[in-house]
Structure formats: structure tokens, C-alpha cells
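Extended Data, record Ig-like domain-containing protein
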Amino acid sequence: MLSIKIHPVSTWISKRLEDLKEITSSVNVKTLEKGSGIHSITTVSKVSVRAGGSITVPCLYESKYINNVKYLCQGFTWYSCSYKIKTNKPSSSGKFSISDDKKQRVFTVTINDLTEEDTGDYWCAVEINGGSDSERYFHLSVTGGKPYLYVDEQKRTGFRGEEITIDYHYHNVGDIKWCRLGSSCVTWPNGSLDNSTVTITVINSKVLSVNMSGLRTESSGWYLCVKGDLQMPVQITVTEKQRNLESFIIPLSLLIFIVMSNAEVKYSTVKKKRKTGQLGLAEEEVTYSDVKHMRRASEKQKSKVKLLNRSDRVRLFFLPQWSEANRDVDVMYSSVVAVEHQTKQRVCFHLNVVFYGIHSITTVSKVSVRAGGSITIPCLYESKYINNVKYLCQGYYWNSCSDKVRTNKPSSSGKCSISDDKKQRVFTVTINDLTEEDTGDYWCAVEINGGYDSGTYFHLSVNKGPPHLYVDEQKRTGFRGEEITIDYHYHNIGEITIDYYHHNIGDIKWCRLGSSCVTWPDGSLDNSTVTMKSVLGVLTVTLSGLRKESSGWYWCVKGDLQMPVHITVTEKPTT
């Protein structure tokens, strides 16, 4: 059955619905009065699983939805996704199962007997009676070989007061975090999470280990290991340890001492812990993403770079020249759910350990463009990189991506161009004559002489039809003291203004590059007033009270998509 979710005043969509009725046997229509719930559901953003196995995905929801129906929906766009299983209608096939833990406010969906055909886009969703359902997107990747990040068991049990160790296997690059679903995160190598101590150890180039000590009953719940843009959830249950009689056999001499001293006896188990170094990193909260990785500037130096193994880790922790200045590490963020903190780390070294720039580059995470058109991507960098070479790199993996255009080597083909505004600290890359073959993974990058290049990831999707979120012009001009309106076109439900056309589902924000955001419907941004409206597939963003300082790059955020626009504010000509 095809499920179509429409806006009650959208006559255009209603007409499309009538067209669809001619080719579908039955249509289930859900009326949406508002955009989908803001941060009402929290889950993973991307998981990788081996074909033939199964995956359980936890979905945390707000307390007001305890008694609502929960379900799993499959499809790239929310408005056309199809139900796979619901809490009020269990599946009889055994392919899907769903369970709702109302005490923890977490419903879990399990997909069994996975095949590569199950790779795709899914939504954890809550049914809202008389309103628009609330949803949260995640991507499932099913591989014939080893997954990029996986764990042998998704359910583990520990004992109160003791510790638990979980080994993750990985085949991807990226920074590392250990997060509690709906709570905060600990960044590699160690930290505290809900009064438990967390130590993350990179055992070798394929295994990382997460150790939680000082477990409490309240430590029970769902956790996520984050590496690169992937997560893998694990449920930890903490119980009281069953005591056996052997635990309480006490030597006579000790017993006499205890009786005489009237001391209190407590039994405990002591385990040897791995040594950890002094490389603690500050936790950081983020909403939408910036991806950072490390790359050697000189290809000739590749042979000098290797992943740390167990013995290297020991030497690293006790390097005599280690100082606070070396704590500046690359991080990677991913936009997913609610306010999720997803930082990851890949550590390399050559004689000495070298780490580079936190937040060194900021850009979009995902854009959608029509075939035949062009797109300009702004990349904000730190002031220390003003005179460095900037470039665009294409490829899923940072360490193997290929340069497309560089500021010190302009492209002669006209396909890609690059420009560096050193005053604004923004370099822009433009890709022209787009085709569906240009869909893929790209990196805004800065070359670091004698060190690891800094790169931030974004995904480009090129469509034959209307993009899921787009604007007619990426460059606009306004006058000081007045207002400017931008229309975004879209193909989903969300929030924004500056007329952006949108075809995707998700919450709406208007953000300034390198600054803060305003969430739909209105707010203040850098002393300008922002108002967002949504009518018939068009999001309109209005900025009023413009100042010269308002000039710069902005983007509309709708769901997991962004579309950048450059605004230039000038003095109005006198007549």
C-alpha cells in the first residue's frame, strides 16, 4: 500500500494524488497540518550490516508519545515511504519486528535476513492522531563483505559497580565517539558519561574497544559507537551480580581481625584495566554537521604514515614532548537526529604524533541539484589558513579522493571552478553542467604544508527531476535597513523562508555559515530578524533590518538537506 502524506491546503499535491489514484489500487491519505515534529525522535543516522544478518535500531521518543502507535517506514522521501511494521499491527513474515519499551521511551525495530536489496532509507515514526506524524530518518547499508562498523552482539549485560568492555570492528576512517542515546557523548580516548567512566582504546587498525566502569543500574540503556559517519547501537543492561558462597570464604586470621576491629566487610572484584594516556578531549555538542579528517599533504610522504597499533599506543601515551599544544585534533560531525554529538577520530603519526585543527572547515553536508544545472558550495576556514592552497576533492574515502580543482591550479575544462575570498575566509567551489554521474561524495580541503590536510565532507545529489530542496538563484542583493525575501522550493514538509523549493521531509532552519541558526518560524540572527513561512511547496525566508555586516553566505536547512545562498547588502541608490 502506498502511503501519501499531504498538506491540507496543498491543492497541487491534491491534484497529484488524484493522478496517483488512477494507478494505485488503494491510497492511504494522512493529513498534515504542520511540519514534522522538531527533535521528537532520536535514532542513528547510518548503520552498516553484513548480508544474512540482522540489525536492531533503537528510536527514542518524547514522553508525550508513550501511548501512540510507532512504526517503521521505508523510502527516500517521507511523503512517499511505505509502512514495513507498526506496533498495532505486528508483521507475520518475520522479516520485521517492533517492540516498544514505554518505561525507557524507546521503541526498537529489527530487520532480519538482510540482503543487499534491503540497503536504503528508513524512518522511525510516531503516529499523531489529528496531526502530522513525527519521524526520524536513518540509512541502512547492507554489504556482501564485512560491514564498515559492526559489533558481534547488540545486547550486553554488566553488573552494578563493575565494568563492561565492548569490541567494535571497523573498516572505515573517521573520529571516534561513544554516545548514550538521547544524552551526551565521550570523545576518544576517555571521559565521563552519566557518572560512569568511559575509556576508548584503538587496539589495532581493525578493532576498537569501549570500556565502561563504575556501572550503575541507571546505566542500562542504548548506546552508540560512532566512527566516521557510521554508528552501531548496543543495548547495555546492568543488573546485580549473583553472589556465590565461594565469594565469602574468608581466611581465619582475617576473620579474627575483622571481629576484633569491628570492621565492615565488603566483597568486590578487581580487574586489571588497560593503561590510558593523558590525551583527554573536551566533549562537544553539535546539531548539524561538519566532517573533518586528516590527509597527508605530500603524496611522497605516504610511506611515513601508518595507523597506530597496540605497541604504538603505549609509546604515544608516554611521548616526552607531548604538550597541551598537541591536543588540537580533527573531528567529524554528522547531522542526524535531534541534538546528537557525533565526533570521530583517526590517529596517524610519523615519529611524533601530529593532530590538526578542530572546526578547521565548515560547509554544507548534503545538497540536491537538478541535472544540467550548477551548484556553488561555500567553505569557511580558519584565519590561520588564509594563505594556504584550497581544493575540491572527490571520493567517499578521504585518503583516496581525487583532486578536482585547486586555487593554485585552476581547471581548464570549465567543469569545476574555485575562488578564495580571504577577507571573508570563505573559498567557493562551483561545479557546472551537472549530470547524474556527478552524484557522489566531495571534500572541501585545505592543504597543510608538512602536515595533514584538513577536509570537510559533503554529499552532492544530482536529479533529473526537481531537486528535493532548491533555490532559483544562489546570489542575492539587498539594501541596508531594508529586507530581502528568498524562496526555496521543496518536496517535503519543513520550515524556512527566502523562497526555497523543497521536496523533502524534515525540520526547517535558516543558518549563517560559521554562525548560529534560527529554527522555524522566526527568530533573530546577527541583529537581523528572520521570518519563515511555508505555502504550497515553497518555503519563504525573509531577513529584515539588513546591515552591511549581514553580507555573507547563508543556507536553508530542511530535513537532511541544505541549500546555500550568498547575500550582499549594499547602500540603496539615491534617485
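Summary. The CA atoms of residues 197 and 213 lie 5 Å apart.
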